[in-house]
Amino acid sequence: MSPTDIKAKNAKPLEKEYRLTDGFGMFLRVTPKGSKYWQMAYRFEGKQKLFSIGVYPAVSLSDARQRRDEARRLLAQGIDPNAKKQAEVKELKAKRDKTRTFAMVAKAWFATKTKWSKDYGDSVWKRLETYVFPATGDKDVAELDTGDLLVPVKRVEALGYLEVAMRIQQYITAILRHAVQQKLIRHNPAYDMEGAVQKPQTHIQLCIIHMVRNSLKYVSWKDYKAVTSGLKASLSDPGRRGGADGAGCVRGRMGR
């Protein structure tokens, strides 16, 4: 039976699957559950194959015939329509995946930083290009784990650039937070990098160390133990580093 739009619309499911043929190998396949599919039977290089054209009614009879005729033109040129369709799907997926790479997500994140000065923005982007993108730029953000993210951070840390390493860790965390917000990933693996980078010594810490070194030349053993204990407490307590002792240290080094 040759299908028309009315026949295709009124085709009822039966106990067994059946076909409404249209010509040139195309037919409407009707399943027992009532689903309807346009397909085309053809031979290529001696093998019998099926080409899926579309689902009815999303694809009308007229559209199905156009797609069938296009498939027949490909066959006349020695091209398998299924192979061409698969290649197109693969190309489309590749284009979509490219927008999910770390570098592309970083670019989208960077575009939101409109309040940054040009110099600061250039500095951030230069660091990403130099230290981060070579290791993670081409990877899909959904496939990155904490170990992958630590690679560029640890490389910078190994060079002794502790402040830069911490900044890069912050950039990566912010970029993947943007990926979460855009629903590209569900979890930000960068959060688990917390504590992985050695913190650089602050100016106050270096000042205290310098002052104590000079002072220890002139103190007794008893005073030495008291000073070193105080130094440990000072370096481990951020509140004390930022207090009056720290300010005095800075003044001392400045000769005031």
UniProtKB/TrEMBL annotation:
Keywords for this protein: DNA integration, DNA-binding
Region of interest called Disordered, as start-end residue ranges on this chain: 235-256
Start and end residues of each Phage integrase central domain: 102-196
Record's compositionally biased regions (Low complexity): 247-256
InterPro entries: DNA_brk_join_enz, Integrase_DNA-bd_sf, Integrase_DNA_bind_dom, Integrase_recombinase_N, Phage_int_M, Phage_Integrase
Superkingdom per UniProt: Bacteria
Molecular function as annotated in GO: DNA binding
Membrane-spanning parts: none
One annotated GO biological process: DNA integration
Residue intervals of the Integrase DNA-binding domain: 4-88
Family, similarity comment: Belongs to the 'phage' integrase family.
Entry protein name: CP4-like integrase
Gene that this sequence comes from: intA_1
